Amino acid sequence: MMKDNLASLLVISGLLFTMTTLNGCIKGEEGPMGPPGTVGLGTIEGKIRLWKDYYQRNTDHSGVVIRLEKTEYRDTTGVDGSYRIENVPAGVYTIAASKEGYGTMKEYNFTVGGGVSYFSPDLARIALAPEDVKATYDTIEVYGETTPAVRLSWSPADTTLTNLYWIYYSEDQAFRESMLVTRVLAQKPSRIYIYGLEQGVYYFGIRADNGVGYIDETSGVPIYPTMSALSRAAEPIVILESSGIKKSIGWVGPS
Can you identify the CATH homologous superfamily of domain 23-124? Predict the structure, then answer.
């Protein structure tokens, strides 16, 4: 679990998708991946793992429904997370694994027929939105110089869980993905400093997440099924003068 002192910023480019694979094995799950062929009836099997948060895995992996979309073929996992669907007509399907309270994981163009095809994603709980999000005008020392900054702080909804927090800023409250500042792992009330913003009015918001995702192949859009709703800071911050420094992140740690 996270130590009381979060010593450094965890800015990890593409973090979610380096921890997942889009062929059904999530968080390093090992095992052969189908399909072996497309002739005749096929079998689908695998083992699902449920995660309580970013680090903690459940001991009971039962109750996950695995289904081929637009068909009647499905099964439900036992305590060990295993399942098996037999006598599936050969073809290409979209397969999904879901359980209430957890983010649904999918695989598109999943081929069945002539043997066993494998689908073994990890499912993580849908994260709780952060609370008490506040943005205040402040300063931070950068290379020995006092520099204007925005101090953004928040509290996890449940401090027994470690989540990934997505930090956003926006000039129009749209909070598009292009306005993502960084991602931070945290378990306790935390703060982050953002400096080098141009002159203007800025709004800030934070989402919690548990670190899994896939690409919706019908649209090409990344899907983050465990991401929470956006929690917004109540008031915008007005930057009256640009500092001339490139936008960056300062120290991150407990509030």
Answer: Carboxypeptidase-like, regulatory domain (2.60.40.1120)
